[in-house]
Amino acid sequence: MKYITWSKFTNLGETTHHAILHRLEPGSRQEMHGHKFTEIFWGIDGECIHTVNGQEQIFSENDLILLRSNDIHELTCNSRKPFSYYLICFQTSILNRLLKRYFSAEEDIWGMHGELPLKYHIPPLLRQWLNAAISELIGNPDDLMAVERFLLNLLFEIRKLEAQATYQCPPWLQETLRQALKPENFQHGSTILADLSQRSYEHVSRVLKQHTGLTPSEYINNTRIEYAAAQLALTDRPIIDISDECGFASLGRFYNLFKKRYKMPPRKYRLQHRRIIPAQ
User: Fold this and answer.
1) What are the Cα distances from residue 207, in Å, to 168, 173, 218?
2) Structure letter (DSSP) for residue 105
3) In which domain, by residue range, is 11 found?
4) Residues contacting 3, CB < 8 A, separation 6+
């Protein structure tokens, strides 16, 4: 097994980072290796086998992996189509400075204490940002500010991702829950999750409960109430109209759930959180 140093891996002039689009052809592989720097990579198209620290994982499009400088890994494309992924590597000292500046020693940021590197299934908006951000890094190989900005933004986006109760759900359920955020969907109640996913209600309920601790009814009601709160703060719409749009069968049911969530009735919430700028 070989260890790759920064000077042997990067191109001339790449003093802070190296960014590139890689493509693995069917049947090819990057042999097992270690390196003295840190890497980020995310799948663009296809899938491959990522063997890291002795364990095999499927690495596919929309997967993001935060590799540490002490990880040993290889990539094998065993599918019939090529596997494409973006790679950014940078000197570990850059990451360490940011972690020391913004996080406490007790926080396990970047999965430093885990057996395997952190792996995320990234939602569409985060993938769009990553694909756009790497273009700036490719064009600025010795720009420390560019790579630090990228890493800070990435750490911020990952923190938001982890704060979502749904981020560990399988991709099909994540997409279902994204569609369920639309009023034209959540107003139909919890059965819409089965319709959107084209799976049985029982299966959706079991997987949702496993990953979020919520039942379909609880998830939909939370979505309805959060939408209603935004409408109360940002519009002058009558409360009964907001309740109807959310799909509540009665105004009383809406009031009970809203007070349970925000510890106050809708009208009081509107008065305290009003964000409407009057016309001049």
Assistant:
1) 11, 8, 14
2) T
3) 2-162
4) 33, 34, 35, 36
Pick from 114, 265, 245: nearest CA to 184: 245
Closest CA to 158 of 149, 171, 167: 167
Nearest-CA neighbor of 190 among 216, 222, 224, 214?
Answer: 216
State the 10-residue block means of pLDDT for the chain, 280 residues long: 83 86 94 93 95 94 92 94 95 93 85 88 83 88 91 91 76 88 94 96 95 91 93 92 95 96 94 66
pLDDT of residue 74: 96
Run of H or E including 96: helix 92-102
Distance separating alpha carbons of residues 178 and 158, to the nearest angstrom: 18
Residue 170 tokens, joined = 């399988």
Residue 202 lies inside a defined structural domain of this protein: yes
Predicted structure pTM score? 0.65
The vertex-231 CA angle with 230 and 237, nearest 5°, equals 165
* Same domain, yes or no: 227 and 91: no
Distance CA 226, CA 228 (A): 5
> Tens digit of pLDDT for each residue in 137-184?
987 878 899 999 999 999 998 888 777 767 778 889 988 998 998 999
Instruction: Yes or no: say if 279 and 242 are a contact pair by the CB < 8 Å rule.
Output: no
Write the single-letter amino acid at 230.
Answer: A
**Domain-terminating residue out of 116, 143, 162:** 162
Give the list of residues 6+ apart from residue 8 with CB closer than 8 angstroms, or none.
Answer: none
Residue 74, domain member (yes or no):
yes
Structural domains counted in the chain: 2
Is residue 280 situated within a structural domain? no
Backbone angles phi, psi at 79, to 5 degrees: -100, 175
Is residue 196 a contact partner of residue 180, using CB atoms and an 8 Å limit?
yes
